């Protein structure tokens, strides 16, 4: 009967061999392939300050980067320019900064007036309406909206 059952010493020896085999955290002989790192599970953003939903438009600017009473020219996702003006704390409006006279890019408003650097046409800062030519019409509005701390195309 003792010949069929493994002896205690044989069992312990077999267990030691098994535990020292690669993959069991035992001895490292340096010949085993490296074990790839385990990536942590992916997490969805949980911040309430996220600029928009994953399917929503990307932000074009942070509200805080647009001077109150002034404005800023930024790039749209398609590469075109966008003039953002901020007449009040949470009121941000967008315009195509291309002057309707001959196409120069107008700067942000100063003291409520946007003045074209090429031929001095003037536009109302908050509305983009024509104040003085040679342009014959105002700036073209580009719909934008404030989402949290960011401005997105509407
Ligand atoms: S291009 Fe703006 S006034 Fe001429």
From TrEMBL:
Protein name (database record): Cytochrome bc1 complex Rieske iron-sulfur subunit
Chain positions covered by the region annotation Disordered: 19-64
Cofactor: [2Fe-2S] cluster
One Gene Ontology MF term: 2 iron, 2 sulfur cluster binding
Function of the protein: Iron-sulfur subunit of the cytochrome bc1 complex, an essential component of the respiratory electron transport chain required for ATP synthesis. The bc1 complex catalyzes the oxidation of menaquinol and the reduction of cytochrome c in the respiratory chain. The bc1 complex operates through a Q-cycle mechanism that couples electron transfer to generation of the proton gradient that drives ATP synthesis.
Keyword Chloroplast part of the UniProt annotation: no
Record-annotated Rieske domain positions: 58-153
Alphabetic keyword roster: 2Fe-2S, Dioxygenase, Disulfide bond, Iron, Iron-sulfur, Metal-binding, Oxidoreductase
Cited Pfam families: Rieske (PF00355)
Keyword Oxidoreductase: yes
Gene Ontology CC terms: membrane
Signal peptide extent: none
UniProt cross-references to InterPro entries, sorted A to Z: Rieske_2Fe-2S, Rieske_2Fe-2S_sf, Rieske_Fe-S_prot, Rieske_Fe-S_prot_C
């Amino acid at each position: 009967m003792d010949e069929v059952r493994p002896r205690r010493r044989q069992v312990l020896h077999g267990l030691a061999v098994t535990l020292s085999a690669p993959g069991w955290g035992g001895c490292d002989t340096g010949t085993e392939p490296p074990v790839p790192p385990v990536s942590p599970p992916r997490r969805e953003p949980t911040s309430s300050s996220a600029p928009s939903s994953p399917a929503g438009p990307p932000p074009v600017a942070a509200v805080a980067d647009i001077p109150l009473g002034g404005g800023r020219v930024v790039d749209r996702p398609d590469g075109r320019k966008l003039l953002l003006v901020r007449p009040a704390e949470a009121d941000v409006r967008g315009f195509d900064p291309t002057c309707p006279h001959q196409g120069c890019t107008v700067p942000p408003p100063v003291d409520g007036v946007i003045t074209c650097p090429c031929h001095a046409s003037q536009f109302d800062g908050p509305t983009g309406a024509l104040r003085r030519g040679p342009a014959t019409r105002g700036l073209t509005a580009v719909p934008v909206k404030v989402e949290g701390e960011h401005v997105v195309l509407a």
